[in-house]
């Protein structure tokens, strides 16, 4: 028997204990071990029941995702589960930690299920671009009904034990040791003469409006298809005999396994876990971190303070005046009441934070004892330098001095202190207590344990932390500025902001670039354009001033009610602002441009080519360590559709040679903007992909 399954006898109960740390993934060895364990129990004299239980922190976390994309190995999970269910013995599952995907499907193949109160169950396959592929779409609806089953499958959410019991997925919730619970429960079932109870033999549930559900869920997916296909699999389970339903589920599962979306989402799954693991930080201990200082209580400062408070840190926030301090306290209280409403914190915790854990001060000396301080003041170098000079004076030895700058040179900021090794950039995204992305900007002299402490902070704040080098805009904003410029060029050449937004929203972005600009505030882009013009723009660069005119007229987007769109009927009912197109046409005429038509496909290809090209430069220069760092930055900070995996995963799937060919075409029109990344040329020349670089970095 495989070493992944331990076999033991407890009276007339055979216990199969799963031992495949860290999360008992259902690898081939585990599946084979379960099969052999069932054979052994059925051949073991006196055995009347089998208990399946997991060792460690989970029952099963599902199929082994590292096996996906490789030739499937026997025993296949659906066949194994049918075998377990068909056993003449009573089979019981005792669940703790998570039972996800194939793990819950194993439990549904058992005749009875018991769980500890902290257990969570779910079918999250849609998060991997798949559907449940081992009977989950057939067995779950027979226990819960179609609606509840589709809710669990299409959201991929984890269901707590008590709710799962109410849904009929769990028969008994009992605190205690999972193995002992399972043995006692199986004993009581045997004692009560409980019958085997194969779920597959239960009557199928009532039907629903399948087409309506399919269309509604498809629309909700904004281009992601797997959630909607759960409906078709469940439908087959209701309309066909069990075996045929199971075959229909498997067909859909294997079709989805072959999709780009499955590739993109599994890339996102593993990259999300790899992005925080930097080889150079192996064995580097972070500094202790309990008391955090925040400078500036505006939207960003208040968001950062809120995120720290919600993550259990003590926070001291500094503002220039008592009035500004009060306003900051109010902003944080507003953020916390939202967390209270969403059940993220208790009333007691909420009150304790606002009365004692958060302190608002107006004197720098109050920061003398913090472990780390994050500055979030006005984005002006002279202001930053004043703040860091003060922090250098008051903060204790070993305190970390961090800037939330989104563009400015962290090396220059560090140079104005006597401890540049303790200076780092911690670039949060607004709203900082909601957005998952944290760019950790490592300056030339930043010490390794300071970087490690940045990642420790990110982990405790449940952020996706990405290491970035110092350059204008670091990883995210640098790439944003390039693909935004590509969009501006398409505007000059004939496309409208609304065509571009529609094309990118159909591609899967939550919002197109012009709607995003309206949300962030057009004054930010205006300030950047003014700064860049003051610094001097290369004469070969294309420029335009129509957006400046919009700002000069006081239209900054949502916050002023008008920008590219008119929001007078509300954000959700935005309509194009009629003042915009005349400004654009005037600009084209001024530049002597004859506008032309753009298809959605061309808009997406140019936009994405610009994004990929700049991303390849960012990786080539080492600003981002690996391509996956860029992918996670765009996924968690810039609304890139998760089912495409990120811009560089998308590029690998589309094909780097094809993309390079496009860029070479575009380069003929504008050789200055389309300077092709040397890394891209190199990868194409060597027949390699960005993923090859990820693999090399992990080796
Ligand atoms: N397969 C392989 N490795 C896995 C894994 C899995 N299913 N789940 C986790 N790991 C690895 C992970 O990469 C990490 O590795 C380590 O375990 C700890 O994970 C037929 C086909 C279970 C809630 O989608 O959601 O069943 O980085 O850092 O935050 O229908 O992992 O240390 O090298 O995430 O405590 C369905 C996926 C599969 C669950 C734990 N199951 N996993 O979270 O730790 S599809 C899932 C999770 C399926 C069937 C279909 C989470 C977790 P490393 P972690 P965590």
TrEMBL record:
<dbReference type="InterPro" id="IPR008927">
    <property type="entry name" value="6-PGluconate_DH-like_C_sf"/>
</dbReference>
<comment type="similarity">
    <text>Belongs to the enoyl-CoA hydratase/isomerase family.</text>
</comment>
<dbReference type="InterPro" id="IPR006176">
    <property type="entry name" value="3-OHacyl-CoA_DH_NAD-bd"/>
</dbReference>
<dbReference type="InterPro" id="IPR036291">
    <property type="entry name" value="NAD(P)-bd_dom_sf"/>
</dbReference>
<dbReference type="Pfam" id="PF00725">
    <property type="entry name" value="3HCDH"/>
</dbReference>
<keyword id="KW-0276">Fatty acid metabolism</keyword>
<keyword id="KW-0413">Isomerase</keyword>
<dbReference type="Pfam" id="PF00378">
    <property type="entry name" value="ECH_1"/>
</dbReference>
<keyword id="KW-0520">NAD</keyword>
<comment type="pathway">
    <text>Lipid metabolism; fatty acid beta-oxidation.</text>
</comment>
<dbReference type="GO" id="GO:0006631">
    <property type="term" value="P:fatty acid metabolic process"/>
</dbReference>
<dbReference type="GO" id="GO:0016853">
    <property type="term" value="F:isomerase activity"/>
</dbReference>
<dbReference type="GO" id="GO:0016042">
    <property type="term" value="P:lipid catabolic process"/>
</dbReference>
<protein>
    <submittedName>
        <fullName>Enoyl-CoA hydratase/isomerase family protein</fullName>
    </submittedName>
</protein>
<dbReference type="InterPro" id="IPR001753">
    <property type="entry name" value="Enoyl-CoA_hydra/iso"/>
</dbReference>
<dbReference type="InterPro" id="IPR029045">
    <property type="entry name" value="ClpP/crotonase-like_dom_sf"/>
</dbReference>
<dbReference type="InterPro" id="IPR018376">
    <property type="entry name" value="Enoyl-CoA_hyd/isom_CS"/>
</dbReference>
<feature type="domain" description="3-hydroxyacyl-CoA dehydrogenase NAD binding">
    <location>
        <begin position="291"/>
        <end position="468"/>
    </location>
</feature>
<feature type="domain" description="3-hydroxyacyl-CoA dehydrogenase C-terminal">
    <location>
        <begin position="603"/>
        <end position="688"/>
    </location>
</feature>
<dbReference type="GO" id="GO:0003857">
    <property type="term" value="F:(3S)-3-hydroxyacyl-CoA dehydrogenase (NAD+) activity"/>
</dbReference>
<keyword id="KW-0560">Oxidoreductase</keyword>
<dbReference type="Pfam" id="PF02737">
    <property type="entry name" value="3HCDH_N"/>
</dbReference>
<keyword id="KW-0576">Peroxisome</keyword>
<dbReference type="InterPro" id="IPR006108">
    <property type="entry name" value="3HC_DH_C"/>
</dbReference>
<feature type="domain" description="3-hydroxyacyl-CoA dehydrogenase C-terminal">
    <location>
        <begin position="473"/>
        <end position="567"/>
    </location>
</feature>
<keyword id="KW-0443">Lipid metabolism</keyword>
<keyword id="KW-0511">Multifunctional enzyme</keyword>
<comment type="similarity">
    <text>In the N-terminal section; belongs to the enoyl-CoA hydratase/isomerase family.</text>
</comment>
<dbReference type="GO" id="GO:0070403">
    <property type="term" value="F:NAD+ binding"/>
</dbReference>
<keyword id="KW-0442">Lipid degradation</keyword>
<keyword id="KW-0456">Lyase</keyword>
<dbReference type="GO" id="GO:0004300">
    <property type="term" value="F:enoyl-CoA hydratase activity"/>
</dbReference>
């Amino acid at each position: 028997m495989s070493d992944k399954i331990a076999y033991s006898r407890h009276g007339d109960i055979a216990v199969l204990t799963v031992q495949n740390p860290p999360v008992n993934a259902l690898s081939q060895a585990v599946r084979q071990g379960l099969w052999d364990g069932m054979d052994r129990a059925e051949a073991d004299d006196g055995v009347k029941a089998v208990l399946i239980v997991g060792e460690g922190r989970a029952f099963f976390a599902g199929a082994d995702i590292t096996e996906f994309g490789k030739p499937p190995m026997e025993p296949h999970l659906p066949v194994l589960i049918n075998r377990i269910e068909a056993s003449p013995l009573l089979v019981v599952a005792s669940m703790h930690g998570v039972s996800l995907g194939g793990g819950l499907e194993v439990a549904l193949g058992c005749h009875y299920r018991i769980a500890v109160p902290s257990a969570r169950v779910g079918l999250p396959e849609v998060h991997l671009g798949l559907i449940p592929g081992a009977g989950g779409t057939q067995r779950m609806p027979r226990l819960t009904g179609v609606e509840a089953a589709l809710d669990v499958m299409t959201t991929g959410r984890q269901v707590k034990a008590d709710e799962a019991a109410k849904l009929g997925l769990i028969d008994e919730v009992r605190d205690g040791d999972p193995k002992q619970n399972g043995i006692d429960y199986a004993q009581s079932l045997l004692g009560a003469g409980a019958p085997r109870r194969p779920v597959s033999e239960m009557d199928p549930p009532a039907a629903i409006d399948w087409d309506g559900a399919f269309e509604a869920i498809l629309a909700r997916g904004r281009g992601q298809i797997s959630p909607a296909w759960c409906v078709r699999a469940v439908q087959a389970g209701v309309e066909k005999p069990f075996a045929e339903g199971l075959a229909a589920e498997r067909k859909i599962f294997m079709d989805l396994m072959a999709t780009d979306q499955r590739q993109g989402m599994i890339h996102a799954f593993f990259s999300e876990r790899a992005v925080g693991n930097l080889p150079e930080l192996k064995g580097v201990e972070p500094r202790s971190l309990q008391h955090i200082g925040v400078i500036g209580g505006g939207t960003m400062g208040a968001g950062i303070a809120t995120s720290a408070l919600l993550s259990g840190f003590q926070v001291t926030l500094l503002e220039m005046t008592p009035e500004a301090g009060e306003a900051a306290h109010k902003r944080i209280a507003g953020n916390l009441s939202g967390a209270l409403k969403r059940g993220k914190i208790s009333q007691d915790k909420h009150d304790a934070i606002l009365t004692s854990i958060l302190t608002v001060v107006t004197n720098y000396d109050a920061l003398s004892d913090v472990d780390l301080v994050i500055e979030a003041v006005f984005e002006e170098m002279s202001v930053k330098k004043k703040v860091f000079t003060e922090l250098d004076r008051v903060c204790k030895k070993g305190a970390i001095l961090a800037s939330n700058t989104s563009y400015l040179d962290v090396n220059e900021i560090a140079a104005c202190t006597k401890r540049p090794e303790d200076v780092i950039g911690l670039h949060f995204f607004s709203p900082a207590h909601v957005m998952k992305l944290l760019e950790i900007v490592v300056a030339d002299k930043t010490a390794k344990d300071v970087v490690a402490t940045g990642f420790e902070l990110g982990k405790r704040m449940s952020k996706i932390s990405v290491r970035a080098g110092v350059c204008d805009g670091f990883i995210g904003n640098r790439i944003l500025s390039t693909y935004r410029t590509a969009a501006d060029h398409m505007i000059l050449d004939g496309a409208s902001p609304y065509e571009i937004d529609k094309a990118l929203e159909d591609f899967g972005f939550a919002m197109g670039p012009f709607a995003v600009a309206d949300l962030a505030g057009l004054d930010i882009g205006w300030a950047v354009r003014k700064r860049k013009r003051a610094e001097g723009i290369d004469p070969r660069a294309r420029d335009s001033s129509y957006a400046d005119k919009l700002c000069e007229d006081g239209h900054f987007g949502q916050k002023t009610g008008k920008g590219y769109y008119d929001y007078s009927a509300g954000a959700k009912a935005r309509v194009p602002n009629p003042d915009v197109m005349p400004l654009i046409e005037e600009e084209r005429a001024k530049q002597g441009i004859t506008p032309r038509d753009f298809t959605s496909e061309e808009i997406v290809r140019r936009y994405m080519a610009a994004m990929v090209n700049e991303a390849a430069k960012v990786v080539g220069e080492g600003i981002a360590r690996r391509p996956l760092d860029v992918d996670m930055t765009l996924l968690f900070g810039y609304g890139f559709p998760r089912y495409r995996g990120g811009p560089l995963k998308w590029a690998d799937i589309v094909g780097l040679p094809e993309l390079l060919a496009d860029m070479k075409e575009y380069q003929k029109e504008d050789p200055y903007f389309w300077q092709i990344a040397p890394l891209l040329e190199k990868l194409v020349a060597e027949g390699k992909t960005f993923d090859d670089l990820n693999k090399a970095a992990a080796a």
